[in-house]
TrEMBL record:
<keyword id="KW-0472">Membrane</keyword>
<feature type="transmembrane region" description="Helical">
    <location>
        <begin position="438"/>
        <end position="460"/>
    </location>
</feature>
<keyword id="KW-0547">Nucleotide-binding</keyword>
<dbReference type="InterPro" id="IPR017871">
    <property type="entry name" value="ABC_transporter-like_CS"/>
</dbReference>
<feature type="transmembrane region" description="Helical">
    <location>
        <begin position="600"/>
        <end position="621"/>
    </location>
</feature>
<dbReference type="Pfam" id="PF19055">
    <property type="entry name" value="ABC2_membrane_7"/>
</dbReference>
<feature type="domain" description="ABC transporter">
    <location>
        <begin position="59"/>
        <end position="298"/>
    </location>
</feature>
<feature type="transmembrane region" description="Helical">
    <location>
        <begin position="1151"/>
        <end position="1176"/>
    </location>
</feature>
<feature type="transmembrane region" description="Helical">
    <location>
        <begin position="545"/>
        <end position="564"/>
    </location>
</feature>
<dbReference type="InterPro" id="IPR013525">
    <property type="entry name" value="ABC2_TM"/>
</dbReference>
<feature type="transmembrane region" description="Helical">
    <location>
        <begin position="1493"/>
        <end position="1516"/>
    </location>
</feature>
<feature type="transmembrane region" description="Helical">
    <location>
        <begin position="1223"/>
        <end position="1244"/>
    </location>
</feature>
<dbReference type="Pfam" id="PF01061">
    <property type="entry name" value="ABC2_membrane"/>
</dbReference>
<dbReference type="InterPro" id="IPR003593">
    <property type="entry name" value="AAA+_ATPase"/>
</dbReference>
<dbReference type="GO" id="GO:0016020">
    <property type="term" value="C:membrane"/>
</dbReference>
<feature type="transmembrane region" description="Helical">
    <location>
        <begin position="405"/>
        <end position="426"/>
    </location>
</feature>
<keyword id="KW-0067">ATP-binding</keyword>
Length: 1525
């Protein structure tokens, strides 16, 4: 529970600080004369925007267009003067330029904004951006989300004190300064509590606001403080105390403060010395002392009666229309007051004072020296070395307390285990070499993607804090960047070491410490590149979504041109140069050379039924690298290239870090000063629903029921809490689940007992509301107020039925009858504090949708909608898109508030609940909202309950009643206010014995009495007074009157499910069409990635290499679909709160929402499918034919749908965006590993078979590949696949005398030895299998004991006429299967070949093997005869010379046949290639391959996955609960 700030009395007695916090006490004067800030038009603000030349980009969004904002002056000739010891209050309406003025004064304007006029210190002009001036003039923004959530309040203050000290200040002095500031701001009790954020429970909102202020107040070099909306979210008493502290510090230490406030009370305003009031156009309306008489003369005029000035000072100067366009007041004082002030004595005196100060300007030559004497003399308070030390200390805490640090280690172990086990069954043969190539590529891709993925979220979390510190000149941005790089490096090394150590040896890569270390060194380099690349994206990207999408897209580009597939030589010349700019290509090249250089592995693969898979023949690793186009350029030795590639990775990282460091500073210049984007509008509402011609009039469709009162009697609410358990995360995230572990490792408490208000002896049930009895009447507005933590919002939630947990007792009654849930949803409406609106609908469309869902057809919807919009003053905004508030888009905040309320009023409720409707609004905007609520209450005769925080006097007196709660949820007052709040003031005056001052704000008066006195005494006195007894009597009277009556039952709109579904489909379609991150980004990313793939695999050839490239292009195309999946996560997570609000209020059913979203997605899946098909299908040159094109489009459509559905499923089932993206990335990486492309299913260990079978991506890829390859033939050019042999051989022929002639002839073509054949070749499988066997028999025989086995084979072949024409057919028939006549003899030869004892090649190549360096042609004739003799001895069968001649002749024909295959190639069926990947089957009866699974297997599997995910999504929608509850 939040501890209150010290009250006024306590502030007066606060002891002086034990040290001089602000050392320089010399007086100074800050002046600004004719200050104007010119904001250029939108197109001029975005010179680097890709789409700046596309006029009205939003015109394509279903009638939506973007109104370009022209250039304007946000400040217009503003002048003022502030001296040391003074405080200046700046007031103005929303958009009047208050924050711009503060940034202009302290040198923090946007670089694109033009500053005119003069800002001078002691008469010396200061430039637009002066570093020393920024150190002297601190700026506190209105944003409290700039802190590191895992640091404690004390650590946050300590770091600020260290950064602003001189590096020589003793530690004890720094701690004393920090402790004094904590005590002054009332934060001592939460010193050891983490600041927290939406995912980590920390200090309260009010405490966080004080942390933001105190962090900048700790700077001893700051003499001037520009504080923006520092009391927002604080109770009135806390706001008063905070301003008192600042005002007192300024007077005591000779400082100056310029403060903007939203809704200041007169007590707060009187604490200021001067006031500046700005008009909505940025013109000065007043500058002078805080004097009510003077203000009345300027704003009302001396001739006007004083009765017009009955409110607060803020009401006096600001209670006017927001703009002429909004409410249409042509004679608004906005136009007359600036003119009046410019001609007043105040303005003339101000200009004269500025002129007098200017006359004391030093000469031009002396100004710089004079300014240097005033401003701090060094760029930073600390030396660079001391900065490095304190930043490093802070960074270590952030790393140790970040759950992602430990998650990265766990992920590295998991992926190392997965990848290692997945590739663990590879053999030392061609198939194993291909598998290890896939492992190398996957390791490169995986490390790069993981390092970038984990760095981007952390970078976005830290950059806002970094920018705040840099704007305050706490330290150098370069030092911070270096520290981040240096401290992230150990984690990168650990991560890479874990992945490499686990997987490298498991996969059985090349042994040796040198090989492993180079592999590890390469992974570390990739880690550095990935993190540096992510830091660049964090510096350049506006949002994390765009950074994630850009990261995935670029990493995909890196992977495709990295040299794996396609190889470097196969990359089209248009993109080949990218290979030299891609870190993946250097890493892949280095690791491939490291693995295969100097290695030898088996080539031809033969499947034998007795011994299984057998490999014969060898392939040199160098030749294999050459087949993979590696190295890309042989400019030095392979070892030199390998070392160079590793060094290049770190050069890439260094260059990227330099770029990131540069753009980080550039981004800082605009990050905090984002100009409101152009407002989008629609030509007309797209959700118009016709009304019934016989529609009823307003407010009569509920059957004429009238509700007179709403009562609560003895209402109690309690929640169960765990004893002695202060750690209470608000969401189930990884951060929160690991919270206790992290805080233990960090050596700190998660949250102090004082911060939570928990006592070790607290009971297990905490009471939040205690015996509340109250009665609310129709046509009246009741303000619900109370102390901090009194349970105002809790009471509103309990009455409205929004509390889903805890224990509720007591009675809630409507006209004395218990409320019924069905009736309650019809008659009540609840407007949340947060403006939960769909950002892509217009104002009218938002209201029309609610009306269509909740109003019956018999009502006149158009009249109701128009009436509500008029009541809430929304007609000027009717066609404006709501926009995302966080991004500065669309409606102003006051219009959002009114739209939130109008969206509830349109259902014509009887009871209206409003939770903090004026939160975050200025005085004028808040008054505008409450004026609209007042008109609605009167017009619709509503019972209105409003929780409110800091109402002005006029706003407070617009209420009729007040329900005041004390701490513990107890009633301290409930009754009428009376005219001018007289009834209320008299009651509390009698209670306290104090007379209220004249013109006092009644709200501040009663809250002050409640805070100063004893809450228990106030509560007990009210229970005994006549007001309390009257409430009880009226409730009893209502109960007695309701006895015997039928329960009040009011039926709402009896709409059909089909109508709900239709409305939701229309809305979801509009929303998605208008959402650039969902539709435009998705389609452009898909189109761009497909163009890149199309260029990479452009018009592939119809050969085996082309078939493999086809599979690769489809593999990468499937991965493209993953990139837009991330863009589907964010909108759905943002829409969950809208779903909860609308579903709870009965707008529609959750099932209709889920189905409507499902149907609305289908057109976008279809559009994206057609875009991808139109680009990649014809660029790559996929298969022609309507059947194949139709199947491709259908499967691609299912893939788009299923993968986007997977992203949406994560968004629905996880608590936040970070968790959803993390799970999505994890599943995608696993799916890529198990798709069957990087490693075939036959090469996977048996333990991974289940994962392969349940992989959605596998079925998508298999279906698309089968559609492309099945039934086609691909040319296998063996001569280009195998290493070239030095031995030459002619086309062998027999002369007419059946003698061997012209055996060796150097004039003939080259003969090449087969090195390997792709694929597992089955026994008797097909033509190519037997050819491969015969090649192995012919070229790999060796030894002296060949006679028996080989002669037996030749004899069998000859005797059974297996070597007669056609030789190939007869040979295959004789040896193809177990029943063949020569199968046993042939298999015996094969079994002997395993031992490597027989090689016919020696007969052809002499003493050297077939890959020797000496050719036969270099031998003499005698050696030729020896060769022939050797062949005769080996080929001599048992049976005589006739068989010898015949057999030898036929054998030569077979050799000629093999030579023809080598030189001319053979046709390989596409189904045989599919068989290699495990995507086709072999039919032993027909000796053929077939792949019949693409329809009933692949498509069915994808459909089953899709339906399962959609069903789970529908279930998840039913379980969504808004996290506030």
């Amino acid at each position: 529970m939040e501890k209150d700030l010290p009250n006024a009395a306590a502030v007066a007695t606060t002891p002086a600080p034990p040290l001089n916090i602000h050392g320089d006490t010399n007086p100074f004067t800050l002046t600004f004369h004719d200050l104007s800030v010119h904001v250029p038009r939108v197109s001029e603000c975005l010179p680097c925007c890709t789409f700046r030349n596309i006029k009205n980009l939003g015109a394509e969004y279903f009638g939506m267009y973007v109104t370009e904002r022209e250039a304007f002056y946000t400040l217009d000739r503003v002048s003022g003067c502030v001296k040391s010891g003074e405080t200046l209050l700046v007031l103005g309406k929303s958009g009047s330029g208050k924050s711009t003025l503060l940034r202009a004064l302290c040198g923090r304007l946007n670089e694109t904004d033009e500053l005119f006029g003069t800002v001078a210190l002691n008469g010396i002009p200061i430039g637009k951006s002066h570093q020393a001036w920024r150190r002297m003039c601190s700026y506190v923004s209105a944003d409290d989300g700039t802190h590191s959530p895992v640091l404690t309040v004390g650590e946050t203050f300590r770091f600020a004190a260290q950064c602003t000290s001189d590096g020589k200040t003793p530690v004890a002095a720094l701690e004393a300064r920090v402790d004094w500031m904590l005590d002054a701001l009332g934060l001592s009790h939460v010193k050891n509590t983490v600041v927290g954020d939406e995912n980590l429970r920390g200090v309260s909102g009010g405490q966080k606001r004080r942390v933001t202020v105190g962090e900048m107040l700790l700077n001893p070099h700051s003499r001037i403080f520009c504080l923006d909306n520092i009391t927002d979210g604080l109770a009135s008493t806390d706001s008063l105390s905070l301003v008192q502290q600042i005002s007192g510090a300024c007077k005591k230490n000779g400082l100056a403060a310029i403060i903007t406030l939203l809704q200041p009370s007169d007590e707060i305003v009187q604490l200021f010395d001067k006031m500046l009031v700005l008009s909505s156009e940025g013109q000065p309306m007043y500058f002078g002392p805080v004097n009510r008489h003077v203000l009345r003369e300027v704003f009302i005029g001396s001739a006007d009666p004083k009765e017009e000035d009955t409110g607060s000072i803020a009401d006096l100067v600001l209670n006017q229309p927001v703009s002429n366009e909004s409410l249409g007041f042509p004679d608004s004082k906005e136009q007359t007051v600036p003119v009046t002030f410019s001609g007043s004595t105040l303005h003339r005196d101000l200009l004269q004072e500025i002129d007098d100060i200017r006359s004391m300007y030093p000469s031009v030559h002396e100004r710089e020296a004079a300014l240097d004497a005033i401003l701090p003399r060094t760029k930073y308070s600390n030396s660079y070395w001391h900065q490095l030390q304190i930043i490093a200390s802070r960074r270590k805490k952030l790393i140790m307390r970040n759950s992602m640090t430990y998650a990265r280690i766990i992920i590295a172990i998991i992926f190392g285990t997965i990848v290692g086990s997945l590739f663990s069954a590879l053999n030392n043969d061609t198939i194993g070499a291909l598998g290890k190539t896939g492992y190398i590529f996957l390791s490169s891709f995986l490390v790069l993607m993981l390092s970038a993925a984990v760095t981007i979220p952390d970078g976005f979390r830290q950059r806002i804090t970094l920018f705040k510190h840099r704007n305050a000149e706490f330290y150098s941005g370069r030092i911070a960047y270096i520290v981040q790089w240096a401290l992230d490096m150990p984690l990168s090394i650990i991560e890479a070491t874990l992945i490499a150590s686990i997987s490298y040896w498991w996969v059985d890569m090349t042994p040796g410490a040198n090989h492993f270390l180079l592999f590890l060194f390469t992974l570390i380099g990739l880690e550095c590149v990935g993190q540096a690349f992510a830091r660049v994206l964090c510096a350049l990207s506006r949002t994390q979504v765009s950074a994630n999408v850009a990261s995935s897209l670029f990493i995909l580009l890196f992977a495709t041109v990295g040299g794996f597939m396609p190889t470097y030589d196969a990359i089209t010349w248009v993109l080949r140069w990218l290979s030299w700019l891609t870190p993946v290509s250097y890493a892949f090249e280095a690791m491939m050379i490291n693995q295969f250089e100097g290695q030898t592995f088996y080539g031809v693969v033969i499947v034998n039924p007795n011994v299984g898979s057998t490999s014969i023949g060898t392939v040199q690793g160098t030749k294999y690298l050459q087949a993979q186009s590696l190295p890309r350029s042989q400019w030095t030795t392979n070892h030199g290239i390998m070392v160079f590639d590793c060094i290049m990775l770190f050069i890439f990282a260094f260059v990227l870090d330099v770029i990131g460091m540069f753009f980080q500073e550039k981004t800082r210049s605009w990050y905090f000063n984002q100009i409101r984007r152009p407002r989008s509008k629609v030509h007309r509402a797209a959700l118009v629903t016709p009304s019934d011609p016989e529609a009823q009039s307003l407010n009569t469709y509920q059957g004429g029921h009238s509700i007179d009162s709403l009562s609560v009697k003895n209402l109690c609410y309690s929640v169960n809490i765990e004893k002695n358990s202060p750690w209470k995360p608000r969401r189930a995230t990884l951060q929160s689940l690991c919270g206790p572990l992290l805080t233990c490792l960090a050596g700190k408490e998660a949250e102090s007992k004082e911060a939570t208000g928990e006592d070790p002896g607290i009971s297990a049930e905490l009471s939040l509301l205690n015996n509340i009895t109250a009665r609310f009447r129709k046509g009246r507005m009741c303000a619900l107020m109370g102390q901090s933590g009194a349970g105002k919002t809790t009471l509103l939630d309990v009455i409205a039925g929004y509390k889903t947990g805890g224990k509720i007792t007591g009675d809630i009654m409507i006209d004395g009858q218990p409320k019924l849930d069905a009736t309650w949803k019809v008659i009540s409406a609840y407007a949340e504090q947060q403006d939960i609106l769909n950002p892509y609908m217009s104002v009218r469309e938002t209201i029309e949708f609610t009306a269509a869902c909740r109003l019956p057809n018999s009502s006149d919807r158009k009249a109701i909608i128009d009436n509500v919009m008029e009541l809430m003053d929304l007609l000027p905004f009717a066609n404006m898109i709501v926009g995302r508030e966080k991004e500065g888009e669309g409606l102003p905040k006051h219009a959002r508030k009114r739209l939130t309320i109008a969206n509830q009023l349109v259902v014509q409720p009887k009871i209206l609940f409003l939770d903090e409707p004026t939160s975050g609004l200025g005085v004028n905007a808040a008054a505008l909202v409450m004026r609209a609520v007042r008109r609605s209450t009167d017009a619709l005769d509503l019972i209105t309950l409003v929780t409110i925080h800091q109402p002005s006097r006029k706003m407070f007196e617009s209420f009729d009643d007040l329900l005041l709660l004390a701490k513990g949820g107890r009633v301290s007052y409930c009754g009428e206010l009376g005219k001018n709040s007289k009834t209320l003031l008299d009651y509390f005056a009698n209670l306290s014995g104090k007379e209220p001052p004249s013109n006092v704000n009644p709200a501040d008066f009663v809250l002050g009495i409640l805070d100063d006195g004893s809450p228990d005494n106030v509560v007990s006195l009210f229970q005994e007074c006549i007001l309390s007894r009257d409430i009880v009597d009226h409730i009893e009277s209502d109960i007695n009157s309701a006895e015997g009556k039928e329960p009040l039952i009011i039926h709402g709109n009896s709409r059909t499910f089909f109508l709900e579904l239709t409305l939701l489909f229309k809305r979801q379609f509009l929303v998605q069409w208008r959402n650039p991150s969902y539709s435009f980004m998705r389609m452009t990313v898909s189109a761009g990635a497909c163009v890149i793939l199309g260029l990479l695999f452009f018009n592939i050839e119809s050969n085996v290499q082309g078939a493999v490239f086809s599979i690769a292009s489809l593999f990468f195309m499937t991965f493209i679909l993953v990139i837009p999946m991330q863009s589907a996560v964010i909108p759905l997570i943002e829409d969950r709160s809208v779903l909860y609000r609308e579903a709870v209020s009965g707008t529609y059913s959750r099932l209709a929402y889920g189905l409507g979203q499902l149907l609305a997605d289908i057109p976008f899946h279809a559009i994206n499918t057609l875009i991808m098909y139109g680009i990649i299908y014809y660029m790559v040159g996929f298969r022609a034919g309507a059947h194949y094109v139709g199947y491709f489009i259908f499967v691609l459509f299912l893939a788009n749908w299923s993968i986007m559905s997977m992203g949406q499923l994560y968004a629905l089932c996880t608590p936040n965006e970070e968790t959803a993206n993390g799970l999505a990335g994890l599943s995608v990486i696993l799916s890529v590993c198990l798709m069957g492309f990087l490693i075939t299913s036959s090469a996977m260990p048996d333990g991974w078979a289940w994962a392969y079978q349940v992989n959605l991506f596998r079925y998508i890829l298999q279906g698309l590949v089968t559609n492309e390859l099945s039934g086609q033939t691909y040319r296998l050019d063996i001569g280009h696949l195998i290493p070239e042999m030095n031995t030459t051989m002619s086309s062998i022929s027999l002369n007419e005398n059946n003698m061997l002639g012209n055996v060796f002839d150097d004039r003939k073509s080259n003969f090449k030895a087969i090195g390997f054949v792709h694929g597992d070749i089955p026994v008797g499988g097909n033509y190519s299998a037997q050819a491969a066997r015969l090649v192995g028999v012919t070229l790999d025989l060796d030894g002296e004991n060949v006679g028996d086995d080989f002669n037996s084979l030749i004899s069998c072949l000859v005797e059974n006429e297996c070597l007669v024409e056609p030789v190939s057919t007869n040979f295959i028939n004789c040896t193809s299967d177990f029943s063949s006549v020569c199968a046993n003899e042939f298999d015996q030869i094969i079994s002997n070949l395993e031992d490597g004892k027989m090689k016919v090649a020696e007969c052809f190549g002499g003493d050297n093997s077939y890959d020797g360096a000496t050719t036969v042609l270099e031998r003499d004739l005698e050696h030729h005869h020896k060769v022939a003799s050797c062949m005769m001895r080996r080929l001599l069968p048992i049976g005589g010379s006739r068989h010898v001649l015949r057999g030898f002749r036929e054998l030569m024909k077979i050799i000629m046949f093999i030579q023809d295959i080598i030189e001319n190639g053979i046709d390989i069926p596409g189904d045989a290639i599919l068989f290699y990947f495990g995507w086709s089957e072999f039919d032993a009866d027909t000796l053929s391959f077939s792949a019949p699974w693409k329809w009933y297997y692949c498509v069915t599997a994808v459909v089953v996955f899709l339906l399962s995910m959609e069903l789970i999504k529908l279930v998840a929608v039913q379980c969504i609960v808004w996290t506030k509850r």
